[in-house]
Design brief:
mainly alpha, two-stranded antiparallel ribbon, 4 strands, about 10% strand, flat
């Protein structure tokens, strides 16, 4: 059975700038100390403006739902899911 594809949403310019700023400031989870917050924000905002001017469209997945660690079945689960459990 194929997994349903999540619908993609248009990413807002603020989200793109935040992602770029994070990429400029961190290497994975470690902080990179060769660029401070102000410079990262400035570069990210300029990149966003340039990408929007060039016609780029960035898509993102919707936020995932809250994880469920309960072993009790949800009363609204589909019948097919119950058969696999």
């Amino acid at each position: 059975m194929t997994q349903p594809v999540d619908p993609l949403l248009n990413a807002r310019p603020e989200e793109l700038a935040d992602a770029l700023q994070h990429g400029l400031r961190y290497d994975g989870r470690r902080r990179v100390h060769d660029a401070d917050e102000f410079m990262a924000r400035l570069v990210a905002e300029r990149l966003v403006v340039h990408l929007l001017r060039c016609g780029f469209v960035l898509m993102r997945r919707p936020a995932p739902g809250a994880p469920d660690s309960s072993r009790h079945p949800h009363p609204h689960r589909r019948i097919e899911d119950k058969d696999r459990s």
